[in-house]
Specification:
With 145 residues, the chain is mostly beta strands. The protein is 0% helix and 23% strand. The N terminus is likely disordered. The protein binds zinc ion (2 copies). One zinc ion (ZN) binds next to loops.
Length: 145
């Protein structure tokens, strides 16, 4: 049991998300057969930690409710590995839990802002011609579970 709140720095200024990216190679043939795995495909990764963090980069692969954690992939310039990690137990003043793993480096997830995730902002520059606001999804990215 821990008493009191900890955190020497109380400045809540947001931090940029780490720009590191990588490609996770497909699973090696010959390993245990994975469900619904027809051939391998490299998976693009993007670090979910804050910029200038120490230790390895990290991205969440999938959550595992049974274990109360999630599978993460950690990588550096020279190596990459997957590891099951428990959730960070911290939560902000509003009660939002941190979306990162326990003992993660850098700031908690609610302080990390991702400036590149969303597309370019759509400015209402000129209006007058109202088109039917039905744009088709990108498509072609059906995930076969
Ligand atoms: Zn990173
Ligand atoms: Zn955290």
């Amino acid at each position: 049991m821990s008493a009191g709140r900890q955190g020497p720095e109380e400045s809540g200024h947001p931090l940029n998300r780490c720009p590191a990216t990588a490609l996770m190679p497909p699973p090696v043939a010959g390993a245990a057969p994975t469900a619904g795995g027809t051939g391998g495909r490299a998976r693009p990764l993007r670090c979910e930690l804050a910029e200038h963090h120490r230790a390895e980069h990290a991205e969440l692969l999938w959550e595992d409710d049974r274990l109360g954690g999630a599978l993460w992939v950690r990588w550096t310039d020279t190596r990459m590995y997957r590891v099951m990690l428990f959730w960070c137990t911290a939560s902000d003043e509003l009660g939002d839990a941190c979306g990162l793993f326990d003992n993660h480096p850098s700031a908690h997830s609610w302080r990390i802002v991702d400036t590149a995730e969303d597309g370019p902002p759509e400015l209402p520059a000129q209006r007058g011609d109202s088109a039917p606001g039905e744009d088709s999804p990108p498509g072609g990215e059906a995930s076969t579970g």
